[in-house]
Amino acid sequence: MDSLFHAILSLETTDECYRFFEDLCTVPELKAMAQRIAVAQMLTEHHIYTDIVAKTGASTATISRVARALNYGSDGYSLVFNRMGKTDPENI
Q: What is the rounded distance in angstroms from the CA atom of residue 65 to the CA atom of residue 76?
């Protein structure tokens, strides 16, 4: 795990991230991660599940899993959102 995280931290641009993650992950894996971030952002903005399903296509199980992480996780989503300064899920 340390090697993976060190590799990610070595990336400097969005283009480098695209190149690395396209090699590392399958398209469905990347879409799933992007979807979870969009769901987390919408949950932090107090959107209701039906709106999140309609906007992201995420299942209610995925939304619940992300909600659990937001409420009981390690605050990773909050950390990233604060650093990104994003409030609109379209900008993520």
A: 14
Backbone angles phi, psi at 59, to 5 degrees: -75, 160
Nearest-5° angle of CA 71, CA 60, CA 74? 20
Rounded to two decimals, what is the model's pTM? 0.85
Phi-psi region of 46 (alpha: psi -120 to 50; beta: other; left: phi over 0): left
- Distance from C-alpha of 56 to C-alpha of 22, rounded to nearest angstrom: 21
Amino acid, single-letter form, for residue 88 = D
Q: List pLDDT tens digits, range 24-60.
A: 999 999 999 999 999 999 999 999 999 999 999 999 9
